[in-house]
Amino acid sequence: MKKLVKIIVLVFAFTLTVQAQKKKGNKGSKLTIEQQTTLAVKKMTLALDLSDKQQQQIKPIVMAKMTDRKDFIEKRKASKENNEKPTSDEIFAIKNKQLDHQIVMKNSIKNILNEEQFEKFEKMHKSRTRTAKHKMKERKRRNKFQQNK
Hints:
mainly alpha, elongated
């Protein structure tokens, strides 16, 4: 009898944990693009000690990036819902476009920031990229693990 109670409690705890993880994963950004842009510019201002003029110059660049990102995410969600996978040519076009945008953004920001600020920006960007790659690997690993169950 005691073993049965322990098993039931264990199953119940496991079920609650899984449900909590699913709810945690569904967090979506409820901020508008303008709000996200303002927050991003303020974070950059704190990190890089930007002047008012630099803030005004960077804001449209960040806004364009956020808009493109939101459009891309919406297209990805639509294609996932329809179970459509991109062809190799589409993947190449997407990656090529992303790299072009990165080059343009980097050159634009380089023209706005001074050398010291740009070096800080580069370090922040590399750190963020590393963290994002690590999170993606973890997410893929978790998804594979959940699919195997």
